[in-house]
UniProtKB/TrEMBL annotation:
Lineage of source species: Eukaryota, Fungi, Fungi incertae sedis, Mucoromycota, Glomeromycotina
Protein name, as recorded: 16393_t:CDS:1
Length: 135
């Protein structure tokens, strides 16, 4: 019975006895299904999720306004659709900028203080600056 199962799933003893080769993350995640490339946001998922979690907790504790969240885009195509700058609200821009800032070196953080007091056009410029620094 076990032999038949192992044959069905194409299990080979030689595979488990030899050391596994770990692929480079970049190569492994470059193509999901041959057509879509993994977005930078998905690669830094834990950083973005942590920033959104902190913002969520702060908003819930202060209960001032409704929280603005966006899903994390998986593919580059989804990023382009989601990041149509003209359709973003000020709160969404701030959320994206804050999540990207967390992926920067801590020495760059102070230059992006006081985002909530900035106008939308200023936030769009800051967003581009942060994106340039992350690339």
């Amino acid at each position: 019975m076990w032999k038949r199962l192992f044959t069905t799933i194409r299990y080979a003893d030689a595979e488990s006895a030899s050391p596994r080769m770990h692929s480079d993350f970049e190569i492994e995640s470059q193509h999901l299904d041959g057509y879509n490339k993994l977005s930078e946001e998905m690669k830094s998922f834990s950083i973005i999720a942590q920033a959104q979690h902190i913002n969520y907790i702060k908003e819930k504790l202060s209960s001032k306004k409704q929280l603005v969240t966006r899903s994390i885009p998986v593919t580059i195509d989804k990023v382009q659709i989601q990041s149509a700058k003209s359709s973003m609200k000020k709160e969404e821009l701030i959320l994206i900028i804050e999540s990207l800032i967390r992926s920067l070196n801590e020495t760059n953080w102070p230059q992006f203080q006081g985002l909530k007091s900035k106008r939308k056009d200023e936030l769009l410029i800051i967003l581009q600056e942060v994106r340039d620094l992350t690339n």
